[in-house]
Amino acid sequence: MTPPPDQPDSPGAPRFPVVVVGAGPAGLTVGNVLRAAGLDCLVLETESREFVERRPRAGVIEEGAVRGLERRGLARNLLERGQTHTECEFRFGGERHRFAYTELTGRHHFVYPQQFLVTDLVREYADVRGGEIRFGVRDVRLLGLETDRPTVSYLDPGSGGRRVVEAGFVAGCDGARGVTRASVPAGRARLARHDYGVGWLALLAEAPPSSDCVVFGMHPRGFAGHMPRSADVTRYYLQCPPGDDPENWPYDRVWGELRERLGAAGAPPLNEGRLFERRVLDMHSYVVEPMVHGRLFLAGDAAHLTAPIAAKGLNLALHDAFLLGDGLVARCTKGDGTGLSGYSQACLARVWDDQEFSQWLAEVYHGTASGDPYRAGAALARMRRLFSSRAAAGEFAERYLGIRTGG
Ligand code: APR
User: Fold this and answer.
1) pLDDT tens for residues 69-90?
2) CB of 351 closer than 6 angstroms to any ligand 1 atom
3) In sequence order, which residues have a C-beta less than 8 Å from that of residue 200 and are 6 or more positions away?
């Protein structure tokens, strides 16, 4: 079979049982699971190692995801250095309402900045488990996904030449702006998208957290969020018009709005500090169905994006990676394909559950400032039920913590 024109002749191309595209939490977890089973794996990443190990993203990890990492020998630093949270706080109508979810469920959240987790996963994969990883690659292309010998090619950062590798399977873990999702031919997958109609100004402040827990502020001027990241860094969000320009948010305006929207009786003052990240998120979500095409298996943001409403993105990426890694190991070491054949359906059940929960919670966050008195009244009713009905509180706690019935 003559190779396609843009695919140099690949006889003698190195062959890996699995090639992973993307070195984020999903791709690195898949790589580590494969290496633990003694399988060769190649991870391809566009950015440098230094960049991915410093890139701040999410930071709230569900206990189920932590236990999954722990069972795979990937949670040592997280368990040593991560913080545990047992409650969160809602502020609306000038009042503070603590929600003690650990009291209700016995489970808690871990707080561990995503870049620390990525650093741990890269180190474990490359330096401890001897996994192959190439940073700084360009123009990754997938071919032959519907055959049993797909190829992955990329421009080598050193030589600039195109390198070709053969893969038994390809794990598409290249996030929301990757190429693997686009490798699925039109009509072979459905993309479902939801726009929240608002923007969020995502901020990182060089300042200690202003509360011992995550705080959600529902205010007529818009939502505001406070998420501790570490002892000296705090994540804040401010609802803003979609497509707003971060330049419209100078330091004084940011802190003034945060004080206003997070203000409540008895609340301690905010710890101000330098804002070293200030970008406007286009608040939307999407889901690709199915998450599999031939020998390509999508995982994490490459398959589904969850706006940062309920801290689900990182947790879904990890759960996908556990299922995909375990399924690939079973298939490549024992010829057992059941994990892979059930992969997409198993992931999507959790994905859609978290998408629906995020949509429900987004209405609580944004209803007050929607300008629609009906939405504002309904949002407040949702809030009040959390604190008046034990059943409603229990259900919320389970969903917020990612607890699936049956464990
Ligand atoms: N080729 C190779 N690597 C790529 C390409 C490409 N064409 N495009 C993107 N990448 C890399 C990115 O540089 C990034 O390191 O793929 C990786 C994808 O990682 P994430 O975006 O972190 O996605 P994922 O592993 O699914 O984790 C989802 O990360 O984006 C956050 O908030 C999100 O917490 C969630 C988590």
Assistant:
1) 999 999 999 999 999 999 999 9
2) no
3) 223, 237, 238, 239, 240, 280, 281, 283, 307, 308
